[in-house]
């Protein structure tokens, strides 16, 4: 990788090749699923893809420490285009209302919305990428399309969230995005993504994919809790115990992603918080946000990235490679 790209990579060491500067010569491929059984998880954890992905998540985490979601930040043209794609997908939800059906959950209208995404993904990405990066569409499209749920089961979970984050990581590796985009990727792009996925969940009554129920962190998301806890590190007045206060959550939910997640849970679930969200309730007893943040990283690695039922659906290509990390 060229020296001027050193600061723009998810991993600490430079990769041997860059698919950006010579995209016309780089052979992009349609990624395929390679984690066939639990034994392959060890290969994944030692892979370049795992290293790049976790490095990317950590970079974004570090970029939003002590920052509010509502703080001003630079929003580059690629980030604006990413938001525009999400706005288009949001509009399609309005144009695809839920249908009358006997089942309470899993409204089949989602399949029509999803089919539209599949059929238009190439053109959406064509508007995002410059001409020299258009050959990469074949490789990054599956990460985008899989980022909004499964149309057969009509469910959504942390594996789909991971897919969208991997899509952003691929754009970073292609150098469409750079280090100056870190804050906007969390506060603008990913926040808009979360708003859209919540709309999909509520409109089509999507099932949580692979939910651990009361013992899971959340039915649908994980990353906004990580990045949201980073925002709150060293906050002068809001500690981990305070997210159990509805008034504090309501006053601050637009400024902090973590509190926005808690507000959504409070809207969607009834009964004592300790009963319907026991893991989160336990986190409220941690003394400092920095410890919450580091603990959530460990939990994410153990409960999401190390779980075969999730990683078996993740595809690998040249951008997210299952080759051993260098």
List the helices and strands and how they pair.
Layout: E1 32-33, H1 41-45, H2 48-63, H3 77-94, H4 109-128, H5 137-145, E2 155-156, H6 158-173, H7 182-203, E3 207-208, H8 223-231, H9 246-252, H10 257-268, H11 273-276, H12 278-283, H13 289-305, H14 308-311, E4 315-316
Parallel strand pairs: 2-3
Antiparallel strand pairs: 1-4
Helix pairs in contact: 2-6, 2-7, 2-8, 3-4, 3-7, 4-5, 5-6, 8-10, 8-13, 9-10
Outline the structure in words:
Helix 2 (48-63) packs across helix 6 (158-173), helix 2 (48-63) crosses helix 7 and helix 3 (77-94) runs parallel beside helix 7. The longest helix has 22 residues, at 182-203. 39% of the residues are buried. The strands form two sheets. The chain has a two-stranded antiparallel ribbon. The protein has helices at residues 41-45, 48-63, 77-94, 109-128, 137-145, 158-173, 182-203, 223-231, 246-252, 257-268, 273-276, 278-283, 289-305, 308-311; strands spanning 32-33, 155-156, 207-208, 315-316. It has 14 helices and four strands. Helices cover 51% and strands 2% of the residues. The two termini are 13 Å apart.
